[in-house]
């Protein structure tokens, strides 16, 4: 059985990869696998964007699947109001 794959290689001289991803490869309902830790910023565009190591990218380019462990799901309920100077990010990092 033949696998159908589609990929685009962005050469190193094109620019900073996470900006190139946003400008050229970020589309809602698509998947982006990048070798930069900033790749996940493309999730803001409504896509699944995963930053992985170079070997994982090479494996994907060879047509092999990438396996991702399911993260723990946590339910947090906040009550009351945040104090002045405290943001949602502060709560997240707690």
Describe the protein's architecture and organization:
With 94 residues, this protein is an alpha+beta fold. It has a single domain (12-93), classed as 2-Layer Sandwich (Aconitase, domain 3), CATH 3.30.499.10. Helices cover 24% and strands 9% of the residues. It contains three helices and two strands. It has helices at 17-25, 54-61, 88-93; strands at residues 31-34, 48-51. A two-stranded parallel sheet has the order 1-2. The protein is elongated, with a radius of gyration of 17 Å. The N and C termini lie far apart (48 Å).
| CATH domain class name | Alpha Beta
Quaternary structure = single chain
What is the radius of gyration? 17 Å
**Which residues sit in consecutive blocks of at least 5 with pLDDT less than 50?**
none
Using the coordinates shown, work out and report the CATH topology: Aconitase, domain 3
Mean pLDDT across all amino acids: 84
Write the layout of secondary structure elements.
Elements: H1 17-25, E1 31-34, E2 48-51, H2 54-61, H3 88-93
Parallel strand pairs: 1-2
Descriptive tags:
94 residues; alpha+beta; Aconitase, domain 3; two-stranded parallel sheet
Briefly say what this structure is.
This protein is α+β, with helices and mostly antiparallel strands. It has helices at 17-25, 54-61, 88-93, and strands spanning 31-34, 48-51.
